[in-house]
Amino acid sequence: MLLNIFAVAGGGAIGAVCRYLIGVLVGRVGADAAFWGAFPLATFMANVLGCFAIGFLSVAFEGPYAGKDQARLFAITGIMGGFTTFSTFSLETVTLFQDGAWGMAALNVALSLAACLVGVVLGRVAASAVFAR
């Protein structure tokens, strides 16, 4: 049990740092894009990348890495749990609604939902291709 807790904690720390770095990178790269002004682009990108990665990892842990419970806890529960930011997404969307930016809020919900679902599917397809031998 203690080893599982350390696996989740270690992965969570890595995921959280990666999420922070996405925010820093997007903040620098996207700062000049007028369209993205109020849109939470870093959170959107983290959610889409995270959904792709969790789709990929889910296939890996169903196939060639099945039974690797601590590795699954480290990667999916830890890293992906620390990296994806659906709670932040929710808060930012509510804030956009409260600030009267209904269009941006709706765009955030629609794009996030569609792109994240596609990300999971593409991650699963990519992993199936990688692990099919």
Structure commentary:
The structure is a single chain. With 133 residues, the chain is an all-alpha fold. It has one domain (2-131). The chain is 81% helix and 0% strand. It contains 5 helices and no strands. The protein has helices at 2-29, 41-62, 69-83, 86-98, 102-131. Helix 1 (2-29) runs antiparallel to helix 2 and helix 2 packs parallel to helix 5. The longest helix has 30 residues, at 102-131. The protein is globular, with a radius of gyration of 16 Å. The N and C termini lie far apart (34 Å). 32% of the residues are buried. The mean pLDDT is 91.
Key phrases:
133 residues; mainly alpha
Quick summary:
With 133 residues, this protein is mostly helical. Helices cover 81% and strands 0% of the residues.
What is the number of strand segments? 0
User: Could you tell me the radius of gyration in angstroms?
Assistant: 16 Å
What share of residues is helical? over 70%
Number of domains: 1
Q: What is the mean pLDDT? A: 91
Shape descriptor: globular
Largest sheet: none
Order of helices and strands, N to C? Answer: HHHHH
- Beta content: under 5%
Specify the structural class. Answer: mainly alpha
User: Ranges with pLDDT <50 over ≥5 residues?
Assistant: none
Number of helices: 5
Give the terminus-to-terminus CA distance: 34 Å
